[in-house]
Amino acid sequence: MQDRISEEITFRKLEVFLAYMKAGNLTRAAELLDVSTVSVHRALHSLEDGIRCQLFRHEGRNLIPTDAAQVLADFARDVLKLMGDGIQATREAGGYSSNLIRIGSLYSLTIATVPRVIIDLKVRKPELQAELILGSNADLVAKLQRGEIDAMLAAIPAAEPDIESVALFEDDIFFAAPAGSAYAELEAVDLRACADERFVSLSDGFVTFDGFVEAFRVAQFAPKVVMKVGDIFSLMNLVSGGVGCTLLPGRVRDVFQGKVQLIPLQSPYRMRQTIGLSFMRTRERDPNLLTLASVCRMAHRTARV
User: Fold this and answer.
1) Which of 172-211 are b and which e, b meaning 16 or more Cβ less than 10 Å from the residue's Cβ?
2) Does a structural domain hold residue 1?
3) Within a 10 A sphere around the Cβ of 63, how many other Cβ atoms?
4) Within a domain: 154
């Protein structure tokens, strides 16, 4: 059985050792590493103890490498390069600072937010390729936690201690009806007066659906939902076609302009979504995610969604 490697032998000490082998004296090695000469001398002495073999002989105040030191230097270079390559490969496998960033997004954010963020990200980091994955809030949170996406632009998830979020903007929820409907003349819609109305909605997992459910809970009746769909654009098509009314965030206002009208809700039913950038706390120092967060903040300082 191979002897266990002494805990005195570390990657850092091998780096110090190679710096000394290159520089030839303690002062120049210390300058290369931006440390004190005492730190270099201590590391070399500790490494020698761990190897249990003489690496240097003393000639006055100078340390002269032995043949054993030359052998160790050859292996140390290979070991440090191999470990460096391994760390880089591991980071890329985990999506950390690779040339690809996978961004999850709600469908509704592809209208303005996502294009602006991706363009600005490309300007900031031309070498970084962005892959867009669309889904519901619940889908995106699950993908983020499984490592299938690197970040998500969506409603900020509640009670997720492993997720870090940066709030970007808040969006009001509106009553959505076909243009020219009886609701068009109202300053605000009282949901309690809509008990006989037909409704369409998103499926479970979408933050807008959660708001839909909460609004009707406050109104104290179950809406007549005639159809559920899996994306907000299909939902708006159903509204414009007269299949039913629904509740929609203000960010989609201009998509079906002239076909779908958004009317404010009366105060008991008003609610807002907080939209932000979210990523795993374990990756909060990832350079790509730091750049993405900076781009997102800048985008919403200069424009409203």
Assistant:
1) ebbbbbbeebebeeeeebebeebeebebbbbeebbbbbbb
2) no
3) 22
4) yes
Counted domains in the chain: 3
pLDDT at 304: 47
pLDDT > 90 in the chain, percent: 67
Query: How many Å from the N-terminal Cα to the C-terminal Cα in the chain?
Result: 65
Is 158 found in the same domain as 15? no
**126, 117, 119: which is closest to 168 by C-alpha?**
117
Contact criterion met (CB below 8 Å) for 247 and 174: yes
Average pLDDT rounded to a whole number, residues 126-144 = 93
pTM equals: 0.69
Residues 210 and 134 in one domain: no
Strand partners, 60: none
Of the candidates 122, 109, 173, the one whose C-alpha atom is nearest the C-alpha of residue 305 is 109
Task: Give, in order, the Cα–Cα distances in Å from 161 to each of 255, 294, 296.
Answer: 35, 22, 22
